[in-house]
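User: Structure tokens for this complex, please. No commentary.
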Amino acid sequence: METLLEKIKDRVSVNFDLKDHKIYADQKRVDLFFKKEHIPSVLLYLKEQMDFRHLMHMSVIDWLEEGEFEVIFLLWAPKEKIKVFVKTRIDRENPVMENMDNIWPQLNTYEREFKEMYGIEFPGLVAPEEFILEAWTGPPPMRRDFETDKFAKDNFATRPGREDAQDVRETIAKRSGEDIPDFAKKYSR
Amino acid sequence: MYNDKNKQKIVDIIKNAARKHSLWVLAYGTGCGAIEVPATMTSRYDAERLGVRGAATPRQADVLLITGYLTVKTLKRVIRVYEQMQDPKYVIGFGSCTINGGMYFDSYNTINQLDLYLPVDVYISGCMPRPEAVLEGFGKLQELIGKGVANGARQYKDNLDYYRENQKKVIKNWDFQDYNW
Amino acid sequence: MEREKATTLYIGPQHPGITGNMMVRLKVEGDTIVGARTEVGYLHRAFEKLVERRNWVQSFTMMCRFCVPEPDPVEESYARAVEMLDKIEIPERAKWIRVLVLELARMSSLLLWHAGQGHSLGLYTMGQWSVGDRNYILDLFEELTGARIYHMFIWPGGVRRDFPEGFEDKVLRTMDYLEKRLEDYDNLLFENSIFQKRTQGVGYVSPEKIIEHGVVGPVLRGSGIKSDIRIDDPYEVYDKLDFVVPTQPGGDIWARALVRRVEIRQSISIIRQVIENIPKGEVYTKVPNPQKWKIPRGDAYARTESVRGEVGMFVASDGGRKPRRVHFRGAAYVHAVTLLEDVLIGQNIADVSAIMNSLGTCPPEIER
Amino acid sequence: MSFFDLRGTLKPLTSLKQFGKNPHTIRYPEVPVEASDRYRGFHFNEIEECIGCGNCATICMNESIDMIPIEGVEGDKGDSGLRPRIDYGRCCYCGLCVDVCPTGSLSLTKDFIHVSEDPDTFLFLPGVENPDAKDRKTYVSNKETSLNDWARIPMPELEGKERVKSFAEVVLGYNEEQARQEAERCISCGICTEVCPDHMHIPEYINAIATGNDEDAVRIIYDNNPLPELCGKVCTRRCEDVCAIATRGEPVAIRWLKRYATETADASDVIKDIVNPEIREPNGKKVGIIGAGPSGLTAAYYLALRGFDVTIYEANEKAGGMTMYGIPKYRLPLDSIQKQVDYIMSIGVKIHFNTKVGKDISFKEIYENNDAVFMGVGFPKAWTLGIEGEDANGSMQAVNFLHMINSGEDVEIGNKVVVVGGGNVAIDAARVSRRLGADVTILYRRRIQDMPADWEEIEGAEDEGVHMEPQAIPIKIHKDDKGNVKAIEYLKAEMVQSEDGGRPRPVAIEGSNTIMEVTAVMAAIGQQGDYDFIDKEYADQIKIERGRFVVDKDQQTTLPKLFAGGDAANRTADVISAIADGFRACKAIDKMLIG
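Assistant:
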């Protein structure tokens, strides 16, 4: 299995500028990292030339701390029965990704979702404005800096009647006269 | 309370007795609880023997089952559906989500308390409620109708401003054609 | 003055023929559909946002809610993805129990499909029967997992409980009963000339659309391609089980119905094999205290064959106590949006409901 | 297909064969339906068994569980006094609360029907509102599938045979991975902090260890304990007795985790770097402290941090008091105390060693030259057995024996030692004697399970080959003609249940005299205070009861300006109480002098 995955990596790296790769033999999977510009041609190559015809999934991860979005395409080769994860990173401040729904029309749905949920722009994407949300005015909700609990508290009131709830740790600290310093509270749960 | 038993006129008593044995439920699966509705309606639990059965359109229905959480987008449609329904009409809140948000209490897209936006006559607890609990809920609704205290629709009319205010707080645009606030 | 030829017709979200809470906006000329647009989002609960606030174990309770009719494949794929990330080996018996649960879920979902497919064509008796019989499977679930619909039974590390006493016999008895009932279903549904005429040649999915749209599951097999994740990318113990993957060349509703007709029988056979071969032993590998459980940085994708096709869970960890990203791939995510829009063109309005049922449209799975 | 499909028309009609069959419709609601034996319905809580740890509220991702005080449940040590209340407007019936319940008090029942027009009725106190649901429990907490970790990570130790060869430390300490794993067992409830005399921030520092922030853990520990490594090695750890996990499993190794965290700082300047304390500007007030034991050092450390000018007077040549001279080195190596004392001195605490109050400096002088005085003098004098022949050579007090060993003196004990007593001191003396090569027997009045010593110590002693002779009452020490110990004579005893319901007491059996040949006898039956150094004019004003200073809750004695702590002021006589006394006194002195 490992050699097969190596071979795939080698074949791709001959044709494209492969930034990095990772092989998971137990999962029959190879991760390939590219620069954003190469993604469409890589996907097209994998689909047309290398049997990776089934697009299992496309996903976006928000690495808030690193200021980047990770865009991942999960491909499956029905004949060889292996997975390829094509990964790239795009800037979080000004996220633009090439529209690729001509390669797989199903990507249209994914791109509409990511446009709405992460604010990633796909130039040339033909789709109605709204996908899941309606009349949404806030920031793209799946971004990590959007606080869903705060939003819910502000907009959807909670039923009163639960105000007498107490925290066990605080109750005990109060009873025994313990002062928990602020820096320790960071670790309280 | 509106219309309590002592003040019910004879004609009301007769009307309510008739109403409670013929509850037509609007077939609108608003949330995940809709999966237990077929089970309740079909052969094992057979709610029809209790006078409960499905109706296809809002104008023919008496009971609006809110089966669980309501997203803001659905809430808008549900309000319209509710307002299209003709009297007598009742709302059953089905499952935890309608009471206090359920497991989606911190979601940015689901409302927490149904009774801020629509009057609710009966709540059924559970996530999701078993068909027995649903039958029990219908039984309770019938009981309330018989007593003449299931007055959600009246409350809605009388306190329309209150409900509208709450609805407008979460529904940012209301752009149904020829059906406006 | 020329009259506008195409009319816009909205079906849903409140419509008895729609499978769940979604809308299809049709452009029709007379009775024929010339354009279709789906509108989803009525059930968006933001699970993928919510799990960012919940730790690895807490998140598992959300998983079954992704798809209401068949919650277990989602639970299983989440559990397996987490196990892949943290390199947890689960006991052998747990794997077998998982297969049993998955197959029972497949059956219950297929019975619901029988009802929906019949209902969409006006055959109401089918619904009364199959949803009624589905309760026997839900009874089994209740006995095993403690809940009828949301089982929350398959969790990272194995399954939550072992079989209760006498459970195996009960499963076999139920299977015997259902097998007999399937003959009745054949007579009522598959032999029914109305059903045949309404489904043959309707809702055609051409083979070239399959690759484009990432079609999976019975829809793929109904177009003549033999593909099943249980065989191609075996998980749990499917590689130790003996079953056939049915295919039909037709590509229409009828072909997909025939595929599902065989599948429910295959499920019965798999369940019997599981009961026969299940090994003894533990059912749960201890995971660390949920409050403090940290998973090393990385990502994993676990895919499971559900009744609608491939469902998968993409899980990414940043090395912390909570998932960084949990992204669910539902079969309906492509079937019910781009593919449905494509397939509906040229069909009659009356067939919309049947086509949606046949494609396995499941709105909660699309918008999560 | 033909226009008229006969088969397709007739086949569906076969369903008519179902006509007249028994319906499978259930007769609910006329005939009630019972849920399965595993159904996850409403909750039930055994109010008596529940300790209010709140783990259910923590695991509940829907925030549907609130901890509230309820009538009839008074919280005391090991019970927060709160009980869960469940909001069925939130609950998703996943049962995780049951799976993490450490006591197993929470369970789910077969009940599932609650229908109401009033949404406020969906708040529910399990166990209080449905006491009859006890018989309908279904989903119960199961130790096998529970999410709690019941088993402790075993502490690596030296083998019993290895141990007796030297004074090397017996407990080896967790390595990083073991510590993380052990810290991950903690459920962060905080029940333990109440029974800790010092109320250390236990959940917080364990959590810091679990997240890999050992230095933060050290900082949190140093917030109210300046001798953590000492505690990490020899604390009596009452916290572990009430640990929520301990109700059904082994408690979290709180002591060993503290030891792990503090051991990572291996020198006093490393500690100083990590803790990096904020030292206030000198405020000009002077505090004198008598005795550099744990309580004195604690008071000194925190007073110095608050800007006081602190001086300690210590009779011995090293600081640490009983922990330095009473605890054998295989339990508490010398340098681990020394390092902490060095750190305390490095922030500005002055210690006058070899200065015995009453001899080298008078109490009066200290009292008058300082704005406040703290006394942590401990119990230096050991009780004697009070039997015939105790003046023989080779008959000694165990405390003195340990003191001599720890100061590096040679003590002649021969090859057969008898230790009388069952406390930690007795075990220590026995194990030290074993390391010196003697055969050791412990004579104890009661049974082994009645011994006040830590069970770990007793087990350790047994592993090392110490012989236990319970229910033995010594009556006489036989001397040989040179005045050396020759043998000890004791009576066997039987345990008699006392009539007032107290614990059984030993009663000697007449005529069961046994004589054992020995070369040394050590008495370890307790110590007492020695307050002769206090000048007469003050001694009258200080109230002493049963050998201890009478102090109020601020550790203040009846003499103003004089505070006391440690063994001389509390009844528990352990390190952590002494530290707590010192910390309390520091706060009180600060309040008294600065306000």
